[in-house]
Amino acid sequence: MNKELLGTTWQxxxxxxxxVNEELLETLLLETKNPSEEEFNAVxxxxxxxxxxxxxxxxxxxxxxxxxxxxxxFHLAKSIKERVxxxxxxxxxxxxxxxxxxxxxxxxxxKATNQDTLRKTLSLEEERKEIEALIDEGHKRLILxxxxxxxxxxxxxxxxxxxxxxxxxGNGEIRRVNINAAPQTIxxxxxxxDAGIGTYQIFQETYHQETYKKVHIAGEKSNFxxxxxxxxxxxxxxxxxxxxxxxxGLYNWKFEVLGLMQHVEHLxxxxxxxxxxxxxxxxxxxxxxxxxxxxxxxxxxxxRIIAILRxxxxxxxxxxxxxxxxxxxxxxxxxxxSQIDAGTQIELQGYSxxxxxxxxxxxxxxxxxSRSLDEVMRELMQGGFTPSFCTACYRLxxxxxxxxxxxxxxxxxxxxxxxxxxxxxxxxxDYASEETKKIGYELxxxxxxxxxxxxxxxxxxxxxxxxxxxxxxxx
Length: 475
Ligand code: SAM
Fold this sequence. Notes:
The chain is α/β, with parallel strands linked by helices. Helices cover about 45% and strands about 10% of the residues. The chain is built from 19 helices and 13 strands. It has an eight-stranded parallel beta barrel with strand order 1-3-6-7-9-10-11-12, surrounded by seven helices. Helix 2 runs parallel beside helix 4 and helix 17 packs antiparallel against helix 18. The protein is globular. The chain starts with about 20 loop residues before the first helix and ends in a 6-residue tail after the last helix. S-adenosylmethionine binds next to strand 3.
């Protein structure tokens, strides 16, 4: 890795070339227009074998406009999802810690110039109340979200993470804390890593530099390369579990998918491990939102983005958030999404106040799915999905490169199915409504019977389920 790109202050001038080679991406998109039958089939053949696709192969899929072929992509995405992840969907909740922000991003409700936005930073006591409320709902996995502000330095982030892990409420606790915050220096990442975080997530928003400049007018975030190499610095600091993302609706969606893929290639090449997750938020209504209609992504395009990513990086988690409506989330889940948030509140103190209505003066953007965790759990199970709160990989050190070793040969079934079933049973015992509990146990029975888990593991699993029913946890 070119050390010049890993400067220790964001103001540092980054001289080396960035890895987003825009010319290459635009050329690939032009060259692969109207791909031939042979070209398309060759890519699909490689994807069937769960090979990580090249930029050119991804460009061919992005430029596939034929309706039947798009359906083929969807079918293959569905089957890869089933092969790699089974029917599991991991659930989490976002928790906003503070919405003060010094950036001026045209699309964001937290932008510094929004004088009517109500600003708030949670005190540790207020954070405790939110986390108790989240545990009370049944959550085990959080992503803590912070604006970009001197109040949210690495030591505040580390402190809020440690507090999240320390809280016990009844049988419940938070077992994994991920982060979505501004890019840090290597030293600051180390401080945050020591607090025991899971994934550090930074969305590049757009990989197109000219657009990036236009939409990030001022503040630390206006430095494209500081952000672009933000996760490389995290890797240098020993954080091997990172999440990338693009905000769809700022620039041409096909270019952004290739940008994400270049980011994957960069991390794999430099650190031997790709991102743990990819996110693809779409632009939503926000206080003072400025948008360019030309680049808005419709539902069909979003589904294509998800399915193509599923084919391109079969072993990378794909996250779909509550920005989207329930109906669309259902469809997207089948195409390859592996993680969703549920029972989501993005207003500060929203969980403890049990907020139902959204107020864009207090929130970053409009969400599309405001259903409770119980409702989402029930619907997932009725649709044949197994909701999971599992955090075993991360707690047993199976992250980064190690995680890839486990997930690649399909090993994941023997580890993940039992863990998903046990964490689901914990939820059913401690938090579910009667209706959800009934549906949940029916699903668990079917899961154990049908799954391709080894017989001895099945026996142990049944024993452990009995233990969960009599009150034992975290088995
Ligand atoms: N300080 C953090 C940073 O630098 O990344 C703040 C991230 S923000 C709280 C989380 C993400 O929300 C952003 O990275 C962006 O992709 C997304 N976001 C912002 N405004 C949005 C909007 N109007 N609609 C949908 N997503 C939005």
